[in-house]
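Quick start: read one record
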Amino acid sequence: MNADDIRHRFAELRAKGMRHKDAAAAMGLAEGAAIAAHAGAHDKALRATPLRGPWLALLQSLEACGPLLALTRNETTVHEKTGIYEKLSGGEAMGLALGEAIDLRLFFSRWHAGFAVDEAAANPGVPSSLSLQFFDAHGLAVHKVFVREATDRGALQAVIDAHSAPELQVEFKPAEPKAAPRAESAIDAGALVEAWRGMQDTHEFFGLLKKFDAERQQSFRIAEGEFTQRAALHAVGDLLQEASFSGTPIMVFVGSPGCIQIHTGPVVRVEPMEMPARGDAAPMRWLNVLDPGFNLHLREDRIASVWIVEKPTSDGHVTSVEAFDGEGELMAMFFGARKPGVPEREDWRKLVRGLARLAAAAPAHHGERRDR
């Protein structure tokens, strides 16, 4: 398909109510490729202007724009936070946003392209949707920024103008097939669990996985009975409902290849929803948090496994609840709200103790279990 064909078909699919990602997929394209086709002069509702970095400087300049909506998603889960982009730091490869509302871990080495996207509304009386959209080398969205009613659009346009690169020709390449994880029998299970016991900070876990060349759920299976337990698939819905009822503040992590976005605080309005799928597919079941400033949309029907995970730290053990889809991809992680140097909240521990467990699939690889 050439750019004209893409723009024409994309407009047709958008008119049917399809999201950008779904419209691109219906054409057999990555989302980034569909957006890139809208650069340059044309008469369609969506117009895209390529942007150039440095990405950290671009995000830092957003503070002057006031409230914006930050959106990070993966294949099954969407995380949206409204607030000000502030307290950004980092470098060319990585960055942090530590604002009161916008809390991000940024992996700029995975950011391949960015666009300012201006899409006219179907109703002439409604302002256009203005956003900044960033993609990896395969056209997968890593982070998006949308205007809100209180956004200073003039300030945002100044950011766009400062980083605009209309002459830039953006290309994407197909992703390589995902490599199969190493055989679990090849992992030194005893040494992995011993290293797990010695952790002093949750962030050491990423290094542990790398050291032992273990996939995340492989490590959970190896440590099962001591540090990990399987939970029922409905545990995520139960967790959100109980947090809503009890007022327990939580942390919700959702990641893309280039960004992890975090909500810290209570959740109030939790609404499960079933939506018909296209064709003969089974209905989609969504778990939604619909609070002012924070929205979460998680495909509950795509949950294939849930784990309760404990990690030792210098402040005592820290507990997470982690949901994975059928492809083994991490959908979302949930923690009790806490700051470094502060022990985990007892109300969070009580909430997790109330979640339904599943029996272990097989004996642990590392000898005696210590059930908790």
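The chain is about 25% helix and 30% strand.
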